[in-house]
Description:
By secondary structure, the protein is an alpha/beta fold. It is built from nine helices and 34 strands. Mean pLDDT is about 95; it is low at about 1-5.
Amino acid sequence: MTSTSHSSGPRAAIILAAGQGTRMKSPLPKVLHPVGGRAMLDHAIDAAEALGCERIIVVVGDHSPEVRAHVVKRLGEAAIAVQDPPIGTGHAVRCAEAALKGFTGQVVVTYGDVPLLKAADIEPVFASTDGVTVIGFEARDPGAYGRLVMEGDTLAAITEAKEASPEVLALTACNSGVMAAPAALLFELLAEVRNDNAKGEYYLTDVVELARRRGEPTRAVFAGEDAVMGVNAQAELAVAEALFQTVQRETFLAAGVTMPAPETVHFSFDTEVGGGTTIEPYVVFGPGAKIAGGARIRSFSHIEGATVATGAEVGPYARLRPGADLGEGVKVGNFVEVKNVRMDAGAKANHLSYLGDGVVGAKANIGAGTIFCNYDGFFKHRTIVGEGAFVGSNSSLVAPVTIGAGAMVGSGSVVTADVAPGDLALARGVQTAKSGWAARFMETMRARKAAKAK
């Protein structure tokens, strides 16, 4: 990872991801549940990287090998710290101390289940290079949140709701759990944290009181309540997804994307849509969708890992899978699936077709019911349809096969050999007629039916 220079000096992040997540009631570890098509943990790592953190340590539990594997794949083995058993947030942060040995800058502690917290929300904690800074928020309903007791610009205390006086309970400034401090100070203070509480756990919040006893500055900066929301259950995951989608929709509307019913359109974290594009109701964008300005995405389409150029039209009821690459003016119509196929400018597949692994040349026409037969049970093979070619309805193109430029394939053909440019391929049985057969058959059947009815 390339570190970014900051006036506040080097930065590191500790992301806590060792919780059991039992309230999710899911075999998938909590922090790997997606928001906007991306694991919540990855959102936290993204924020740390955007902050220019030169070291990112993720604290995991032995109970979730999937989380460990996820982190190792993205950040490497050196990014792992293990908390076993889980005995509080303070203990979890201490578990990262060895992994940060030799680091002398500031450390921010964040969480793998807080997917909406962005780098811009965290940045203010680095404004000061001494003492302890926490991120707070003004709660609509403070409820059981820990309260931030402020004395001017100084954070005087973090008081848990169950221990708060009526006066403190009336406060709406609450603790998000995110905290930053110089590495040396943070770990010195954590070494003094005790677990003499009802749960027998080591709380990260105790660091504030210990810092004040030392005369160290203690401060709070504030972020929006939605940005710091944690996800602990499926209902909260749905709320986080809804908040994420609202931001995405507002962003695209502001950029000039037309959406008659934006509340029905579902975006991913990396969706790109250019201004002047129209997105009709009930469209889903999976990860990796890139839509140029001036395209039209019609209702009930699903697009993932695909690129759509200016003037192209997709749907309704179309599916673009990874590797689909639609050129300018391409039309992919209703009930058409495209996977790993480049369609050049002006090509059309208007309805009821599967195009998998290949190329469709400019202005080629793919008739209804056409299938690119790309898989032989062991390997995938490519189908090449040349510029201006015409493939008749209900044709099967058995890959590997090439249909030359300007060639035609007769309807109902099963094409197993290349077709030269300009040729007509017919690969179907010869039609025969049996005179009077249908009339005799129907007469026989009516007689049998009448006999049964007696």
